[in-house]
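Sequence in, structure out.
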Amino acid sequence: MKKVFFSLVCLLGFLSVGLSGPKVQAAAILPENTSSITDIPINTPRLMSSVNTNNDFNSMLYLNQTKYAGWYYPTMQKQREPWYDQIVFEKSPRGVYIRVLQSKENDNKLYFNISNRGYVYLDRKENAREFSVTKLTPTNNLHYDTFRVTDLSTGQSLGIYNNYITIGSGTIPRNWIFV
């Protein structure tokens, strides 16, 4: 009986200390990508473009798609090609999936995935990568909000390499715009 009573006292003591401890805002314990979901429109088509990290308007590139070895790769081009330059953010368990609105002859593979060499390519939803999208501090030289897009599996931000969207070695950082 003494052991049961002692256990009960210990449990109550632990609970009272735990409940009277410092109060923490929910935002302080949530992962970065959870709070950033409110910064982007979910399930709404958006034009995807990017600029260099100086937010130089002359560095603007638009989303396009390139076929190579039977796969479609999202690429960034100077010339805008309507219909193929739009994406949709879909809520995922840990962040968002990125889906192209329309694909060239590739209707069942619409979601961003990343190859083992760091190239983003279009794949089925069950293979899609999850991303965090974080709004960056506004700047005076660009009249658009810019974002950092980070792969949640690796913690690496999306950029470009030879106009392909990539992560990892050789990737040139970009700020992303979703209008």
